[in-house]
Amino acid sequence: MQGNKTLKELADYLGGVVRGNENYLINGLAPLDSAYPDKITFLANPKYAAKVAETKAGAVLMAAGGESYGRNVIEVANPYLGFAKLLTLFYVRQQPAVGLMSGAIIGKNISCGEQVSVHNGATIGDNVTMGNRCVIHSGAVLYDGVAIGDDVTIHSNAVIRERCRIGNRCVIQPGAVIGSDGFGYAPDGSSYYRIPQIGIVILEDDVEIGANTCIDRAALEVTLIKRGTKLDNLVQIAHNCQIGEDCMIVSQVGISGSSKLGNHVTLAGQVGVVGHIKIGDNVIVGAKSGVPNSLEANAYYSGYPVAPHKEWLKSTVILPKLPEMRKNIGSLLKRVEELEAKLAAK
């Protein structure tokens, strides 16, 4: 952890403004409820504003104009982003490079940049290219012909299959598999013939892949994850998919083959997407939704199958009332039949 910083130094780092003692010293972060005077805390959700009066923190990171209750404050446009940046400042440190450790398995004709760390137990295949400051942890496997950019971290037991390409500043969490075979089989009578998957996966710059997530290689060309997209744990991306820039794909999402997502798409947990469809830019799909058709851009969808979010909310209000409605409709039908019978008898 880095040493003490004044509130003025922290405000300059964040592009914020101090209200209170600019020279007050801070040496870390803590939650509102458990912070001590040497720590800074943050208020990202206004519903917890009353806790600012009770916190023991030496300072509070908050949006402009918030009630300080006499506390030192750093005002920033986005307190949650500021919190993340201060966590990085105080606690995240680059470990010294260890080079190619003797316990690593290193193939032939590899190309390494500067300050690379390949830890004991990692396996690097033939003709692999690694950029500067890459870190390959124990148990990670890079197949033949893999290329990774600068500042890439590949955690333990992650696998990067043959010829796949990883951009700069990507992070691959433990157990992730990049470039597994796509699920492709041709019917052959009562059995199935396996279709060779000869394409690759490309991750562009600043992509992060969660633990035990699988991204299948394309049958012929490329499965593509574009710049800045983040995939949570336990996500499945099938072969030939294209995921746009700055997307957020949450845990247990499954996207079937050849689907295309635009930029800044958010799929909440357990969303299922069928194959060969398009989802437009800036779409949000709520948790546990099923997506059977293409979705227009700049909209919020939910449900199974998906509908515009507000329509889905109206539907969910009606669902608990369906038994009573069914009973009432049955009663009304009976009365109508009785009235029709009386009219027919006249």
Topology, pairings included?
Blueprint (H helix, E strand, L loop, with lengths): L4 E2 H8 L2 E3 L5 E2 L13 E3 L16 E4 L9 E4 L3 H13 L7 E2 L4 E2 L4 E2 L4 E2 L4 E2 L4 E2 L4 E2 L4 E2 L4 E2 L4 E2 L4 E2 L4 E2 L4 E2 L4 E4 L4 E4 L2 E4 L5 E4 L4 E2 L4 E3 L5 E4 L4 E2 L4 E2 L4 E2 L4 E2 L4 E2 L4 E2 L4 E2 L4 E2 L4 E2 L4 E2 L4 E2 L8 E3 L4 E2 H10 L3 H24 L1
Describe this protein's structure.
This protein is α/β, with parallel strands linked by helices. It is built from 4 helices and 39 strands. Strand 21 (185-188) and strand 22 form a beta hairpin. The termini are far apart. The mean pLDDT is 94.
Short description:
33% of the residues are buried.
List keywords for this structure.
28% strand; 10-stranded parallel beta sheet; 39 strands; alpha/beta; 12-stranded mixed beta sheet; 3 domains; single chain; 346 residues; UDP N-Acetylglucosamine Acyltransferase, domain 1; Udp-n-acetylmuramoylalanyl-d-glutamate--2,6- Diaminopimelate Ligase, Chain: A, domain 1; 4 helices; 16% helix
